[in-house]
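Help needed: design a sequence for this.
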């Protein structure tokens, strides 16, 4: 039976060069609404072909990379404008490049990028929503303003598309072959360690993780597990305060897992994209990642062995709660928020005002957000409208997990300046090798952050 399923997962924390309407594009989350329309405005006067420069993090193995490329083509076809896109997968290198682009005057006209501390270096070079609305009063009017992410100066600059949550993805086949049950909603740390032991004894890798380029999920949850939703956003001021002690305890938990041999033996030398193959190809049981990973699991081609995760096998995968140590965080307390969105730069605003509004309005329309967010979170007033008939077992499990969540807490790393955060993450392989202790790691961070 087909029916529309409205998913409103707003988190509790809180133009055209010519007229036209783009055709709908294929998507596993095709909304049962009309095709997204391009923002029309009487202010548009640019005739013919106009170049609009764009940047986003919808690239690489991001689950929405294909959706974004199709959206670019649709907008170009509807407007007659040409997009010069330099999107790249989000990592610390890209963040450095964006900072450099803004400092040298090479920033794009519009960009999809992080909010929080990552945007601090260019806030004077992007346009606040309030200023845009002086000329385009309906801009971003479809968003719940109490759910969007504000910059550290308290202003709203970025119009969100899809929010995020972070949690455990689970390979059910590996669990079954190991004689391990799917984790319960209230998953304890003791249960988790015992499950990992059984998985290892059965000849599988308990946890697929790489600390070479993606250590931040484990860093974040290890700390969260020793704090609480109310205290997780705090930054340690000295090595003796309670926050520092919680961070040190989290790093010790990571060491405990590594000493038991529950991580891959090459966790400190192999990149994340290759480590993930262990999970996709039934060699590893758990993958701690963000909500975007759900789309990647669907029909993803393996970069290592040409193996495809066939849609028929999607029910081999599910999502579970990260285990709780019961120190203030429940297993149903999740990391999540609206941490990125579309900015209009001052450069783009002054030279191509109406076009930038057209592009961002198209990319953040109800229909387009529904397509990008899928079963993830969003800030739409109406919520994402999905066709229930298109949902697979993983989608349904994700929805159930989100509905059962007791809280969503923003990632504390988003409040940390890039250099200090990078130094912490880059030292994670040294933590595993014993070159640096948890106390030294946290002390070095405090010294660089204060």
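Sure. Designed sequence:
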């Amino acid at each position: 039976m087909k029916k529309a399923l409205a998913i409103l997962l707003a988190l509790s924390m809180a133009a055209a060069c010519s007229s036209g309407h783009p055709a709908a594009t294929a998507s596993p989350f095709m909304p049962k609404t009309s095709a997204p329309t391009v923002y029309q405005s009487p202010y548009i006067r640019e005739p013919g072909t106009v170049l609009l420069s764009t940047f986003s993090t919808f690239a690489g193995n991001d689950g929405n990379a294909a959706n974004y490329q199709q959206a670019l083509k649709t907008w170009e076809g509807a407007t007659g404008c040409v997009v010069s896109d330099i999107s790249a997968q989000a990592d610390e290198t890209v963040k450095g490049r964006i900072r450099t682009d803004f400092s040298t005057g090479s920033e794009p006209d519009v960009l999809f990028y992080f909010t929080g501390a990552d945007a601090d270096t260019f806030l004077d070079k992007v346009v606040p929503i309030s200023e845009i609305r002086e000329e385009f009063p309906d801009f971003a009017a479809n968003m719940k303003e109490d759910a969007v992410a504000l910059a550290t100066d308290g202003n709203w600059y970025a119009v969100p598309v899809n929010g995020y949550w972070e949690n455990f993805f689970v390979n059910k086949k590996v669990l079954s072959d190991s004689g391990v049950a799917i984790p319960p909603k209230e998953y304890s740390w003791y249960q988790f360690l015992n499950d990992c032991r059984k998985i290892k004894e059965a000849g599988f890798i308990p946890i697929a993780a790489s600390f070479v380029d993606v250590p931040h999920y484990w860093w974040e949850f290890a700390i969260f597990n020793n704090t609480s939703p109310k205290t997780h956003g705090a930054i340690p001021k000295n090595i003796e305060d309670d926050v520092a002690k919680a961070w040190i305890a989290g790093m010790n938990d990571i060491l405990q897992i590594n000493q038991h041999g529950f991580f891959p033996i090459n966790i400190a030398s192999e990149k994340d994209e290759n480590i993930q193959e262990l999970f996709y190809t039934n060699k590893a049981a758990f993958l701690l990642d963000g909500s975007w990973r759900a789309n990647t699991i669907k029909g993803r081609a393996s970069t290592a062995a040409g193996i495809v995760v066939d849609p028929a096998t999607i029910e081999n995968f599910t999502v579970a709660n990260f285990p709780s140590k019961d120190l203030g965080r429940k297993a149903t307390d999740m990391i999540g928020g609206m941490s990125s969105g579309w900015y209009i730069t001052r450069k783009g605003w002054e030279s191509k005002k109406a076009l930038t509004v057209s592009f961002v309005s198209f990319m953040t329309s109800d229909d387009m957000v529904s397509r990008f967010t899928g079963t993830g979170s969003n800030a739409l007033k109406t919520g994402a409208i999905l066709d229930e008939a298109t949902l697979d077992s993983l989608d349904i499990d994700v929805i159930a997990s989100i509905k059962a969540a007791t809280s969503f807490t923003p990632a504390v790393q988003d409040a940390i300046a890039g250099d200090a955060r990078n130094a912490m993450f880059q030292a994670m392989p040294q933590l595993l090798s014993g070159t640096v202790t948890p106390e030294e790691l946290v002390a070095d961070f405090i010294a660089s952050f204060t």
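The first strand starts at residue 4 and ends at 7.
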